[in-house]
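Collaborator request, handled under Task 6.
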Amino acid sequence: MTERPSQPDDATLVLRSREGDREAFGCLYDRYARLVRAVAYDEQLRIADAFDITQEAFLRAWQKLSALKEPASFGPWVVGIARQVGREQHRAAWRRRQVPLGKDVPEPATATCHESDQLSHERTCLLLQKISELPEKERLAIHAFYLEGQSVQQVIQLLQLSRAGVYALLKRACRSLAIKLRFLAPEREIYK
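Structure tokens returned to the collaborator:
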């Protein structure tokens, strides 16, 4: 079995990026873009806006990388930038006297979808909506661990919790989701 080379940690990548290494910053982007996009989606509830916020957040992160005091905390820092960009977009929409738009539930790709595909699509959209209603830390834990497939260690670094704290948070988030979605399968008991 061949062993994959270990990836440099965030602090190393940040320090290399500060020296102008765009490839190192690309690694940071690859590591955190999906999470930032998920957080941006929670802020704006529109996938197109989430992509724009993600790009803007990473652009600002690149430009202000020297201001990051703790290079190891790049993940939470860029998530904070994305939240700020989302708030700025909300304010700009309000100034234009536009009501921020609600959740875009994409239509099925074709009108000839099978009923099971439609049902699956609707359940996925419902699940994402219910995840967005969770408290912030629970929502981030669900996104990072289950939707982004990050390791527990990465979630520990992102949320700055202990291993036990992450597992307790995930359990609490899953229980909350089960309660919110119990109407889908009323005959099942919610685990305790």
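The cover message to the collaborator said: "The chain has two domains: 8-100, 126-186. The helical segments are 10-18, 22-44, 47-63, 74-95, 115-132, 136-147, 152-159, 163-180. Please let us know whether this matches your experimental observations."
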